[in-house]
């Protein structure tokens, strides 16, 4: 089975507002996919539905053949846009927590990454700065050997110096078969690692293409194309 | 997985309760020692002892009340914050079932409520002078003698299931309030009042109906004075009726708790809407 994620007429309404409108999407294994779109285009809603944090109004999404639920959660590693770290654990304790609940979690990987980013494992989570919290969360998420990584704004809150390390980390820590879907506004920064892009516009898929095809067909970078497609949204 | 969830729930809450328990027992012991120590002392020492005793007892009472309040706050806070706040992003993406989250929180909350009650009870006993103690135990055992073991088991079960019901009522109210995008806390509070009223109405509607034979026995007993002559405890021959009544209370409580529990899990599974 080459497909890891399959989406059929996925729709999510909040009252009269359609956050997602009949989204159809097939994503293959082994790809790094950029989920791109302006604020409010439905990126986070889509990722939340994939994680069973929201229930779709209609249509369905399947991950590795499973509807979002117990089985899909075993193979999905999700980085939300929010900081979900509690205020009572130490960094080492949350690593233990992940090890307890996810059989694919590698403690060694996590400690190696902490060391490279100079984060003390004995620190209380609540004393960490916002940027460090984001790094810890990314480390937790990337220390799993998941089949699908869903990363919501993975580099939004960290300094540019750490960005390169993080992108490097993402590239180094996923296996050939695994798929990464990451949403971001910082297209220029991540463009070099992407295989495919999905443009979301008002809850609808505006464009899906491989980055190579974009370069061949349009003769421009993803960043430039993004600016063109969403021009009316930018001033 | 339920066991692991409970382990972490216990760790997250123990940091509140253990220090409180230790402090309660400590101040109960200090107070008792200060009260019971009798020695030749001058006025200054006597006054000092008086002040210390007052402070110690006051601290004990405050800690006692504090523990009861914290037991309630933890029920609300652990459910609201760790499942429906930002931490929900972590908890609800773990490979566990929704009911396991609710159950782990419920069981640990019950554990703390029971432990708090036990610690409170034991600390009060510390205040009773040892001479009085044996007298009280004798009197109590005389009254208790008319009931058999099954009655106590039943009583314990009723107590437990009603602690559970109270907690699940809170969970259900918070889950309901959470469906809405605004005023979630006020709405949760309103839903709690509503749910609690439903429970009270159910008890009030069913209990008088089933307890009428029981009331009849009491009035007969008192008017003829039969049992008072023959038994040390006047209500001894109502034990069977009392048992029936207890079983009915237990059954109602279980049905109510199960209803709220199912509703809570349904809401969390299908209506989850994290900020």
What does this molecule look like?
The complex is a heterodimer of chains A (235) and B (275). Chain A is of the alpha/beta class. Chain A is built from 9 helices and 9 strands. In chain A, helix 4 packs antiparallel against helix 5. Chain A is globular. Chain A starts with a strand and ends in a 6-residue tail after the last helix. The relative contact order of chain A is 0.18. The model of chain A has no long low-confidence stretch (mean pLDDT 89). In chain B, 85% of the residues lie in helices and 0% in strands. The longest helix of chain B is centred in the first third of the chain and has 42 residues, at 43-84. Chain B starts with a helix and ends in a 5-residue tail after the last helix. Chain B has 275 residues and is mainly alpha-helical. Chain B is globular and about 70 Å long. Chains A and B meet through helix 2 and helix 3 of A and helix 1 and helix 3 of B.
User: How many beta-strand segments of chain B?
Assistant: 0
Q: Which of globular, elongated, flat, extended, rod-shaped describes the shape of chain B?
A: globular
What's the SSE pattern of chain A? EEEHEHEHHHEHEHEEHH
Q: Strand pairing plus helix content of chain A: what structural class?
A: alpha/beta
DSSP helix fraction of chain A? 25-40%
What's the story with the biggest beta sheet of chain B? none
**What is the molecular shape of chain A?**
globular
Specify the structural class of chain B.
Answer: mainly alpha
Q: What is the element string of chain B, with H for helices and E for strands?
A: HHHHHHHHH
Distance linking N and C termini of chain A: 44 Å
Largest sheet composition of chain A: 6 strands, mixed
- The percent of residues in helical segments of chain B reads over 70%
Strand content of chain B: under 5%
What is the overall number of helices of chain A? 9
Task: Tell me the number of strands of chain A.
Answer: 9
């Amino acid at each position: 089975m080459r497909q890891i994620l399959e989406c059929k007429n996925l729709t999510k309404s909040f009252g009269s507002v359609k956050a997602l409108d009949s989204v159809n999407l097939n994503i293959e294994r082994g790809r790094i996919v950029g989920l791109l779109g302006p604020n409010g285009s439905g990126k986070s809603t889509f990722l939340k539905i994939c994680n069973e944090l929201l229930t779709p109004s209609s249509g369905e999404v399947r991950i590795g053949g499973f509807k979002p639920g117990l089985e899909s959660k075993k193979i999905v590693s999700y980085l939300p846009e929010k900081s979900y770290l509690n205020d009572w654990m130490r960094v080492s304790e949350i690593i233990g927590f992940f090890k307890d609940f996810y059989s694919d979690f590698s403690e060694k990987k996590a400690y190696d990454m902490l060391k490279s980013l100079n984060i003390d494992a004995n620190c209380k989570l609540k004393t960490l700065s916002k940027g460090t919290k984001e790094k810890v969360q990314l480390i937790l998420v990337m220390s799993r050997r998941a089949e699908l990584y869903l990363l919501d704004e993975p580099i939004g809150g960290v300094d540019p110096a750490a960005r390169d390390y993080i992108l490097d980390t993402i590239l180094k820590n996923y296996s050939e078969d695994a798929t990464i879907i990451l949403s971001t506004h910082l297209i220029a920064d991540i463009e070099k690692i992407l295989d495919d892009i999905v443009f979301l516009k008002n809850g609808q898929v505006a464009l899906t293409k491989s980055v190579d095809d974009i370069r061949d067909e349009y003769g421009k970078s993803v960043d430039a194309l993004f600016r063109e497609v969403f021009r009316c949204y930018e001033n | 997985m339920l066991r692991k969830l409970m382990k972490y729930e216990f760790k997250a809450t123990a940091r509140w309760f253990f220090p409180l328990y230790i402090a309660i027992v400590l101040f109960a012991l200090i107070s008792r020692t200060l009260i019971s120590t009798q020695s030749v002392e001058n006025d200054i020492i006597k006054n000092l002892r008086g002040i210390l005793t007052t402070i110690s007892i006051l601290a004990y009472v405050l800690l006692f009340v504090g523990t009861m309040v914290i037991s309630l706050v933890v029920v609300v806070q652990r459910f609201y914050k760790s499942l429906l706040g930002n931490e929900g992003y972590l908890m609800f993406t773990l490979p566990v079932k929704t009911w396991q989250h609710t159950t782990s929180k419920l069981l640990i909350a019950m554990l703390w409520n029971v432990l708090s009650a036990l610690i409170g009870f034991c600390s009060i006993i510390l205040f009773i002078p040892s001479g009085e103690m044996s007298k009280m135990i004798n009197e109590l055992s005389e009254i208790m003698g008319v009931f058999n073991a099954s009655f106590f088991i039943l009583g314990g079960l009723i107590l437990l299931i009603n602690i559970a019901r109270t907690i699940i009522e809170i969970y259900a109210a918070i889950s309901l309030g959470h469906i809405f995008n605004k005023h979630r806390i006020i709405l949760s509070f309103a839903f709690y009042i509503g749910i609690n009223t439903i429970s009270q109405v159910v008890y009030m509607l069913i209990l008088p109906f089933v307890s009428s034979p029981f009331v009849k026995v009491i009035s007969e007993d008192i008017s003829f004075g039969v049992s008072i002559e023959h038994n040390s405890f006047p209500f001894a021959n109502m034990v069977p009726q009392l048992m029936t009544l207890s079983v009915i209370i237990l059954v109602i409580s279980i049905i109510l708790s199960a209803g709220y529990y199912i509703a809570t899990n349904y809401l969390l599974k299908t209506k989850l809407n994290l900020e």
